[in-house]
Amino acid sequence: MPAFNFGPVRFIPGRNHGRYPYCHSLYVQEAGVLVDPGSDRETLAELKARGGVKSVWLSHWHEDHMMHLDLFDDLPLWICELDAPPLGDLETFMDWYDMDQPSYREHWRQVLAAQFHLRPRRPEGFLEPGQRIDLGCVTVEVIHTPGHTPGHMALRFLEPGLLFLGDYDLTSFGPWYGDRHSSIEETITSVNLLREIEAGVWVTGHETGIFLEPPGQLWDSYLEVIQRREQRLLELLREPRTMEEIVSAWIVYGRAREPEAFFAFGEKAIMGKHLRRLVSRGTVAQEDGRFRLLG
Q1: What is the distance between the alpha carbons of residues 53 and 45, in angstroms, rounded to a whole number?
Q2: What is the pLDDT of residues 63-87, one digit of tens each?
Q3: Is 38 in contact with 54 (CB distance < 8 Å)?
Q4: Is 218 exposed, middle or buried (0-12, 13-18, 19+ CB in 10 A)?
Q5: Which of 49, 164, 241, 295 has the most neighbouring CB atoms within 10 Å?
Q6: Considering only 2-6, 165-169, 172-176, 265-269, which range has the smallest mean pLDDT?
Q7: Quick check: 99 and 92 in contact, CB under 8 A?
Q8: What pLDDT does residue 2 have?
Q9: DSSP secondary structure string, 142-167?
Q10: pLDDT for position 200
Q11: DSSP state letters, 45-97
Q12: Strands 25-28 and 33-35
């Protein structure tokens, strides 16, 4: 996947088409602003060596969007204040994923340090919802889009008409909302907000990356994944099920995969959000360690 320029904004593709554990980056050369440094280590290291990066912005706190942040330890870091706490401490980072199983935490301690080069960071400042930032060559509007994370930010680059959706990536996998502070309802609201914003180019953090035409049906398909997951869960709960049985149905990932600390954890996290949603609506009850349909 090649790099593209949209006026002053450069799209830097992530390795493997920006699939996890990578993501696509944006770079405003004249202002020296790099957004989400998770794309390609060699490319980003070259930018740093040329003195082309003056500050780093994060759309949110997830590891794949800052895999190469360590290259820029000496530069100012900006993120929404709501997403700042996990950046400062590895244990807090895992807490925000609601990761409570000791073996999973040990796995992620090693992975986050070795693969993602994660080091404690303190932001220089914060991106504020609704803020308009004049970078000289382009004006950037900061759009608060919670749900994926509490402080997830989309960015609208006004002059080229580019809307960066961050991790609302319009992939067939659908949205992730499995963190401690994630929300299904806020995810739906944020996606519907983004689809109403006028733009000429839509850029996502993963996979396809660039849409030169309105995404159209992709918005609906993306949100329909949420409903499909929930419908399959409801069908499964025609008989009382433990959480372990729900995870082993692989509603989210389709089949058992390794490593367990990633896939089984993610399955439980997403299903847990749906279960809490259904319990709060009075559709499902939890009794004696099992979940069952009511009525």
Answers
A1: 10
A2: 999 999 999 999 999 999 999 999 9
A3: no
A4: middle
A5: 164
A6: 2-6
A7: no
A8: 83
A9: EEE-TTSSTT-EEEEETTTTEEE-TT
A10: 98
A11: HHHHHTT---EEE-SSS-GGGSTTGGGGTTS-EEE-GGG-GGGG-HHHHHHHT
A12: antiparallel
Taking a C-beta distance cutoff of 8 angstroms, is the pair 116, 87 a contact?
no
In one-letter notation, the amino acid at residue 43 is T
CB atoms within 10 A of CB 263: 17
Percent above pLDDT 70 for the chain:
100
- List, for residues 185-206, the tens digit of each pLDDT value: 999 999 999 999 999 999 999 9
Separation between Cα atoms, residue 119 and residue 101, nearest integer Å: 22
> Which pair of tokens denotes residue 52?
């082309």
- Cα separation, 151 vs 132, in Å, equals 17
Strand partners, 121: none
**235-250 pLDDT per residue, tens:** 999 999 999 999 999 9
Which helix (H) or strand (E) element contains residue 272?
A: helix 260-280
CA distances in angstroms from 129 to 5, 81, 140, listed in the order given: 26, 10, 12
Strand order in the sheet with 33-35: 4-6, 9-12, 25-28, 33-35, 55-57, 77-79, 125-126
pLDDT of the residue at 34: 99
DSSP letters for 173-236: T-----STT--HHHHHHHHHHHHTS--SEEE-SSTT-EESS--THHHHHHHHHHHHHHHHHHHH
On whether the CB atoms of residues 174 and 225 are closer than 8 A, the answer is yes
All structural domains of the chain, each given as residue ranges with its CATH number in brackets, are 4-215 (3.60.15.10), 237-293 (1.10.10)
Helix (H) or strand (E) holding 6: strand 4-6
Tokens of 237: 């709960």
Closest CA to 120 of 101, 92, 97: 92
